[in-house]
Amino acid sequence: MSERETYTPSAYQNPNFIGDDGDTNNWMGVGQVPKGIELYEVQLREEATVNTHAMDFNDMLPLIGEFGRYQKILFLLTIPFGFFLAFVYFTQIFLTLVPEQHWCEVPELADLPLEQRLALSIPRINGEYSKCLRYNVNFTEQLRLGVKQANASWPISGCTHGWSYNFTEIPYTTIATELNWVCEDSVLATYAQAIFFVGAIIGGLLFGWVADKFGRVPSTIACNLVGCAAGLGTAFVKSFWMFALMRFLVGFAFDNCFVMIFILVLEYVGPKYRTFVANMPIAIFFTSAACLLPWIAYYLANWQYLAIATSAPLILVIFTPWLVPESARWLVSQGKIDKSIEILKKLAKSNRRDVSEQTFQNFRESCLKLQQEEEQNSSYSILDLFKTPRLRRTTIILVFVWMCITLVFDGHVRNVGSLPLNIFLTFTIACLSEFPAGVILLWTMDNLGRRWNACGSMVLSGVFSLLAAFAPSDAYIVAFAIIGRFFVNISYNVGSQYAAEVLPTVVRAQGVAFIHIMGYASTIVAPFVVHLSNVSALLPLIILGLLGILGGLLCLLLPETVDRVLPQTLQDGEEFGKDQRMWEMPILERKAK
Predict the structure, then answer these.
(1) What is the CB neighbour count within 10 angstroms for residue 586?
(2) Beta bridge partners of 103
(3) Is 354 helix (H, G, I), strand (E, B) or coil?
(4) Which residues are CB-contacts of 418 (< 8 A; sequence separation ≥ 6)?
(5) C-beta separation of 57 from 329 below 8 A
(6) Are 573 and 567 in contact (CB under 8 A)?
(7) Cα angle, residue 445 at apex, residues 439 and 451 outer, rounded to 5°
(8) What are residue 488's phi and psi, to 5 degrees?
(9) Residues 6+ apart with CB under 8 A from 218
(10) How far lies 98's CA from each of 153, 189, 193, 240, 384, in Å?
(11) Angle, helices 78-95/287-300, rounded to nearest 10 degrees
């Protein structure tokens, strides 16, 4: 056992022993570590690390501070990017809302009260006034004759003069109501949403290349500025194709506007705090923005102002270079090792940690060795994941599960407009479920494991979606649908990192990128699943339910990664999980020991 592992200074147990350096890095969240002991601890860590193995970033982080002042500032800097993600992802829902009650416009009857207009001009279908048909008679003549009730034998036609809308629940016009995307054109909003996700696929590839070529910070700035410009342009469009083009370009920013900076910040946080930092920006910042968005739409009551209000803030990304450091790992991959060490020294200084030059020298030498290994790994491709039977099966399952998760998640997000209660309130409550989902994962992620978390949450999401489809009342439908959304939130958070742990290091980046692109592809289908509510309100929930259960059960065929040495080589990936049993769970294994 190393000296670091056995050393336990008694001062740590003394609540009155407080250092004078003002360090905010708490010992187990209770009190400050005395400076002298902290420095001694750093020295011991350095000695243990230097004497045992080559240094990587995970070895450096405990020495320079795993979650000190510097990392806490970086964590808070994810706030605007969490808002950007919510605005980019959800705004289109409120730009294309269509009131449930809409009918053919009949200019000759414009001066009549609504009920009289409907009774005279709109045929009833299954007891309700039609949204897409009107009686085709001379209404001026009918009014002169004193007719106040339609004759069912009158000829019927489509809406030749547009539509009128009941704006009681949705108190503003949207681009969908201005351009009359209803009846045979009701699918246009669905096409626009699908085109948004096509943009997300292309943007992911494009800005992924920019991130690898020019750095994470330039990529973050570029994708947010594209999203900002296209979002502002959305406010001035006058046709479907111009709207679709703008949303296609906004799609470039989806995910990238947040994920680039999120991963960058995560790199600088020590392993002990990564579960917290990985979940809290979504649970707190993204959720706050998502809950705020419908009320911004409600109180602005203008779709063009909404497009501007949710796009203009993205311009703040221009300040990123002065606030957020470039990825140290990326700098190393580009041979800029000295620049990487400069950032780590700045981090150590901000956290009031004293790290020796010898430690940084050892880190430099390890980085040079790592570069040589990465040059060897460059010969691997995504096709290597499909060459051996177990790894091929694992990769295919990961792809299908992630496609199910993203489709079910996006389906629940967009299906909120088909639920029977007020969309602004329902959307807010559904988004609030992101917070408990993120908090619960702080405990369940490492205790239940990735596999059972993914399986249980997906299956439960599916079960509650099916319950919502056949619920007896509106209140039960909404409640079950929101619970289904809560569980798929958990699935999404687990799935986001599962593939990165299961796939071997030599093809991990390519494999994760491939899986996420397939997820984007499945979200193109999600708007069309939701559009099936025009056929039957049950269909979207039934499809989401069945996909959730199927995807969840398939997770049981994946290996567990908690408390396991993750695969490095292709052979490791082929062997990984062979010794595991289906019912294993990390918390039970620890108790057994």
Answers:
(1) 20
(2) 164
(3) coil
(4) 530, 533, 537, 540
(5) yes
(6) yes
(7) 135
(8) -75, -25
(9) 210, 211
(10) 30, 10, 15, 15, 48
(11) 40
Q: Is 569 exposed, middle or buried (0-12, 13-18, 19+ CB in 10 A)?
A: middle
d(CA 343, CA 330): 12
Rounded CA gap, 343 and 215, in Å? 15
Q: Print pLDDT tens along the chain (593 aa).
A: 333 333 222 322 232 323 333 333 332 233 333 333 344 344 444 444 444 456 777 778 888 888 889 899 999 999 999 999 999 999 999 999 999 899 999 998 988 999 999 999 999 988 889 999 999 999 888 888 888 888 888 999 999 899 999 998 899 999 999 999 999 999 999 999 999 999 999 998 888 888 878 888 999 999 999 999 999 999 999 999 999 999 999 999 988 888 888 888 888 888 778 778 888 888 899 999 999 999 999 999 999 999 999 999 999 999 999 999 998 878 887 888 889 889 989 988 988 888 888 888 888 888 887 776 666 656 777 888 898 999 999 999 999 999 999 999 999 998 887 787 889 999 999 999 989 988 888 888 888 888 999 999 999 999 999 999 999 888 899 899 999 999 999 999 888 778 888 888 778 777 888 888 899 889 999 999 998 988 888 899 999 999 999 999 999 999 988 878 778 788 888 888 888 777 777 777 767 66
Q: Which residues pair with 27 in a beta bridge?
A: 31
Distance CA 497, CA 82 (A): 18
d(CA 493, CA 396): 20
Residue 157, both tokens: 């036609």
Task: Tell me if 254 sits within 8 A of 84, measured CB to CB.
Answer: no
Nearest 10 degrees: CA dihedral of 414, 417, 422, 423?
Answer: 40
Q: Are strands 133-135 and 163-165 parallel, antiparallel or unpaired?
A: unpaired
Alpha carbon of 565 to those of 495, 561, 562, 577: distances in Å?
19, 8, 9, 10
Rounded-to-integer distance, Cα 414 and Cα 193, Å: 10
Give the global pTM: 0.83
For residues 362 and 50, the answer to whether their CB atoms sit within 8 Å is: yes
Q: Are 268 and 328 in contact (CB under 8 A)?
A: yes
Q: What are phi and psi of 102, to 5 degrees?
A: -150, 150
In angstroms and rounded to an integer, the radius of gyration of the C-alpha atoms of the chain is 28
Query: Measured between alpha carbons, how far is 166 from 471 in angstroms, rounded to an integer?
Result: 27
| Type of residue at 397 | I
* Cβ pair 249, 229 in contact under 8 A: yes
φ, ψ dihedrals at 155, nearest 5°: -70, 150
Enter the tokens of residue 195.
């085109």
| 140 to 152, 164, 285: CA distances (angstroms) | 18, 19, 57
H/E stretch holding 164? strand 163-165
Rounded to whole angstroms, the Cα distance separating 311 from 86 reads 11
Residue 569 near residue 479 (C-beta atoms within 8 A) = no
Paired tokens of 48: 């243990």
Closest-CA residue to 408 (of 551, 265, 575, 232): 551
What's the rounded Cα separation, in Å, for the pair 234 and 94?
Answer: 13
Per this entry, what is the length of the chain? 593
H/E element, 32: strand 31-32
